[in-house]
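User: For this week's homework, look closely at the record that follows, marking any run of repeated tokens, and judge whether sequence predicts the tokens.
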Amino acid sequence: MKRVIQTLAVLAAVAALAGAAVVLGGLYNVSARAGHWPGVPFVLHTTYEQSVDLRAPSEAEVPDLKAPGMVALGAKHFDESCRMCHAAPGLERWAIPQVMVPEPPHITRAVAGWTAAELHWIVDEGVKMSGMPHWPAARIDDVWPVVAFLRQVEEMSATDYADLTRQPARPEGAPDALPYCATCHGITGRSDNPQIPRLDIQDRDYLEQALRAYADGSRDSGIMHVAATRVPRAQLADLAAWFADQPVDTAPAAPVLDEGLAEDGAVLARAGTTEIPACVACHGPGVARKDETFPRLAGQSQIYLAQQLRLWRDGVRGDGRQSDLMVKAAEDLTDDDIAALAAWYASLPAEAR
């Protein structure tokens, strides 16, 4: 037994010396041109597949990926952040991704065989030693639009993709970055996509504060953090001014589909306490708001409002100032409360500035 132990100790020492020689002596060739040793790609890819399978969220956590606007929003983020490596429907990869190790597959192959929950985990977490980064924010609910796009990308044509990601022309006198922002928000700040907030109803101070908070990461969103950092910092104020100067379309974002729900929301929005003012005191409508850095809510998208209230309630969202007031205001809201508030504000005509 003693000899067996001695033999194992010698073998362990030899293995350690060999490992040290490879690492410290530079014996392992890290050249991407040389590629991996035979069998290594199989081991790495199998490890990757099993790791995703073990850690992906349950299918019960997958939201409605066919909700209005989900695919379009995901396509726009993909075009900005992922197309450079994975190409797009109807397009071939350019030269650089084809010589990467491992080689990033064309997006129509990359999504094959994965469930929505597994795709969410991959996009959120990224993959070590592959060049695939993790989601650039702690908040992960905005990964789902990308997943919604990925679930449909295999069936998309080049025309479908171009229609989802096309940038509009820049109006004369507009900031240079406006077409990039308008891909999602529209030239006037009012998008038809209910996943995307209206900007035409907001004051300049609020918009500039929000853009700077997204850019420095104090307001969490993987999609908007990427967008705000792709625009030169000097143009953020110009973009805020552009959207704030647009005529306000006073038409509400959504018709009243459930008048009883909207009436419940009106009661909630007007109810305040000695510690927490009513929603309308800060956000309107119909009163002089306390601070122009608080957003206007009347006429905003119902889907967007409900999403933001859930983020506040769950302690996920800050607004660049990490508002304790909004955390307290939202912490006791139920899902029904949130649905009612969102329905009421969305059903209102927007206020002209």
User: Anything to note?
Assistant: Residues 2-24 form the longest helix (23 residues). Residues 149 and 270 are 39 Å apart (CA to CA). The mean pLDDT is 91. The radius of gyration is 25 Å.
